[in-house]
Design brief:
- The chain is α/β, with parallel strands linked by helices.
- It is built from ten helices and 14 strands.
- It has an eight-stranded mixed beta sheet, sandwiched between helices.
Length: about 375
């Protein structure tokens, strides 16, 4: 199917301070975003796509100066695709604290004239949603036809329905969870410790030293990447294959899976900011909307009004199907309309990014329902 074609990022500056969950605030910040399709006259066909850990506003299409840099969800969003840009006005926003254009630790703190570095405030999923709501206000969008995302993006979609229940008609939550398990928090901490213990990190102010904590970033990415893949997927792709066909009796890279992880780590360390990695993984850890209700997710979701699509993948052990089922049970307990799909796919957590025909048919069918609702004016 065709792509949305050439796209250009846009930016919007916000002078008014945004008060954060931590009690800190940030002002004079910029959000970078992209849009695809056209907003209808009633402004009822807007879809917000929330990104996961190492993604950005670049959801679909490609840049004129780099045609190979296609959007991270280009297989999902575009003309005739599951999220059809001939029908919907799709917005991809780069979150605060990122290293892809929106204000983050690499940027200059107007109060000091130096990069924020370690002084950039810790953010939460709820903070990102509040910032996205401000962007929606500026674009004149009072209510989204849908807010969608996978993984960390799914957390944001869920948070939207709690924080702004009157501004979301549908939430599409894929391979996500209402809170991290202890195991997930542990993996995130190991990754952060790799960065924090890198001598080139310099307490987060490595910019002033003209260095990058590459070793820490490499290891952090390697740890994270293991959790994104299933054992079946790794076994099929790499097995126990040796690069040279024989043991070298040393500690260098010998197995193909080692080579792959080192490659992913090296690539990641060349483009991702270490402080951003710390911020985003901590936001993942902190997300737990049921905490203020004594751990009762039913109570946390009691004020929601949206309809929901949730999808999970059988081999995703990072955000397992049980995580999605827990959300489904609480939504059903609150009388919400919920569609749930559990897809038998071998690719682990990364399956939400891939082009699985069954998965895409589920999303396409749901968006067909949203489209009929918009045109019929009746909520089904």
């Amino acid at each position: 199917m065709p792509s949305v074609g050439i796209v250009s990022p846009q930016s919007m500056h916000f002078a008014e301070p945004l008060v954060l969950q931590s009690g800190a605030s940030i002002s004079d910040y910029t959000l970078v975003y992209e849009t695809y399709g056209e907003l209808n006259a009633d402004k009822t066909n807007a879809v917000l796509v929330c990104h996961a850990l190492n993604a950005s506003h670049h959801v679909a299409g490609y840049y004129v100066d780099n045609p190979k840099d296609t959007g991270w969800w280009d297989n999902m969003v575009g003309p005739g695709k599951a999220v059809d840009t001939d029908r919907f006005f799709v917005i991809g926003v780069n979150n605060l604290g990122s290293c892809f254009g929106s204000t983050g630790p690499m940027d200059i703190n107007p109060e000091t004239g130096k990069p924020y570095g370690a002084n950039f405030p810790v953010l939460t999923v709820e903070d990102w949603v509040d910032a996205q709501a401000r962007l929606a206000d500026a674009l004149g969008i009072d209510c989204f036809a849908a807010v969608m995302g996978g993984s960390l993006g799914g957390m944001q979609a869920l948070a939207w329905t709690m924080q702004y229940p009157d501004r979301v008609r549908h939430a599409v939550i894929i391979a996500s969870t209402a809170r991290l398990s202890a195991q997930n928090i542990a993996f995130n901490d190991v990754a952060r410790q790799a960065i924090l213990s890198d001598p080139d990190f310099h307490g987060g102010d490595f910019y002033a030293h003209g260095v990058v904590p590459k070793n820490g970033l490499r290891v952090a990415r390697m740890v994270g990447h293991i959790t994104y893949l299933s054992n079946d997927d790794m076994s099929e792709k790499f097995g126990r294959d040796l690069r040279s066909g024989e043991y070298k009796f040393g500690y260098g890279v010998e197995f193909e899976i080692e080579s792959y992880l080192h490659y992913q780590g090296e690539k990641f360390s060349a483009y991702f900011d270490a402080n951003t990695y710390l911020l985003i993984t901590r936001a993942l850890d902190y997300f737990d909307p049921a905490a203020q209700y004594g751990g009762d997710l039913d109570k946390a979701l009691a004020g929601t009004k949206a309809d929901y699509l949730l999808a999970s993948f059988t081999t995703d052990w990072r955000f397992s199907p049980e995580c999605s089922r827990a959300i489904v049970r609480s939504l059903v307990s609150n009388g919400r309309k919920v569609t749930y799909a559990e897809i038998d796919a071998p690719h682990g957590h990364d399956a939400f990014l891939l082009e699985d025909s069954r998965y895409h048919k589920v999303v396409r069918s749901y968006y067909e329902r949203i489209w009929q609702e918009i045109n019929g004016g009746i909520r089904s």
